[in-house]
Design brief:
Helices cover 34% and strands 22% of the residues. The chain is of the alpha/beta class and 285 residues long. Helix 1 (2-17) packs parallel to helix 9 (243-259), helix 3 (77-89) crosses helix 9 (243-259) and helix 3 (77-89) packs antiparallel against helix 10 (261-268).
Length: 285
């Protein structure tokens, strides 16, 4: 059945590569929907194809990866990756907001079919959801105001107020490994920006690619300091135990590496600011 999936995905990819236009403004190449006549009976793939849509949780507040555009439609690299999955299924993608502390709940209660939202794969999360991927490797970093000369890296956090998002792996890392720092958390990373500007917090910490988006939006206000001090593999979250669907999504990711759609999605979104990275090996755990 894997070969069937690969063939169907390749068929969709052929349609994608024939066109150079983008699907809306999400950065994903536009393609013809595939007819998945041989999806396994009763599989998630067949169910989603029959209903004609897939609900995808993503961020609405993170430039370059998932940011709500002027018309309300999110754009960014994560959005493009989600669109590639929808295209391989031959369905419409319906994007809804998935804030950091909500992601597992949205998957468990069926509000979304998948989550593509700067979602770091880790063992704790694997206890309640499954992951396809990774499709990108990020790393935790620090952002400060342009006039801050006191913090040049994670060694300078003692006694500093460090802001991050509730339920995020960066926040957990600060709490566990930087006990002399004062952790301040909010529901979303964007909630940290005004406190940073006003001096209520000294630094914001999350993945380097997220911070790069904020710096790109406000280059006179913020800067990134220090080296990366964690490795954050981004995966696509889905319901626990749906191995068939996870294998299908992994096939989509690997096929996107081979046919150029992953690179095109990057260059049209995060690649406007960041250099093209090496795509990571998919972990079929």
């Amino acid at each position: 059945m894997k070969n069937t999936r690969k063939s169907l995905i390749a068929l969709a990819a052929a349609g994608l590569l024939m066109l150079t236009a983008c699907n809306g403004d999400d950065g994903a190449p536009e393609g013809e929907p595939v007819d998945p006549a041989e999806f396994p009976e009763g599989s998630t793939m067949q169910q989603l194809h029959d209903q004609g849509s897939i609900t995808i949780g993503t961020k609405f507040d993170q430039p370059l990866f998932g940011l709500q555009g002027p018309d309300g439609t999110p754009v960014g690299f994560d959005v493009s990756i989600g669109q590639l999955v929808a295209d391989a299924l031959g369905v419409e993608a319906e994007f809804v907001e998935a804030q950091t502390p909500q992601r597992e709940n949205l998957i468990e209660n069926g509000s979304v079919d998948i989550v593509v939202a700067t979602y770091t794969i880790n063992d704790t999360r694997k206890e309640v959801v499954d992951f396809a991927g990774p499709y990108y490797i990020a790393g935790q970093s620090l952002m400060v105001t342009m006039d801050n000369d006191e913090i040049s890296g994670d060694d300078d956090l003692d006694g500093k107020r460090v802001c991050s998002a509730d339920g995020s792996t960066p926040a957990q890392n600060i709490a566990e490994n930087y006990p002399e720092a004062e952790l301040v958390t909010y529901g979303a990373y964007t909630d940290c920006l005004d406190p940073l500007r006003s001096g209520q917090v000294d630094a914001v910490t999350t993945d380097n690619v997220i911070l790069a988006g904020y710096v790109d939006e406000s280059p006179d206000d913020f800067k990134i300091v220090g080296d990366l001090f964690t490795e954050e593999p981004y995966g696509i979250g889905l319901a626990k135990g749906d191995d068939e669907f996870r294998d299908f999504i992994n096939d989509v990711i690997e096929e996107s590496y081979e046919n150029g759609n992953w690179e095109a999605a990057w260059e049209n979104t995060a690649g406007t600011v960041l250099e093209l990275p090496e795509p990571p090996a998919v972990d079929r755990y």
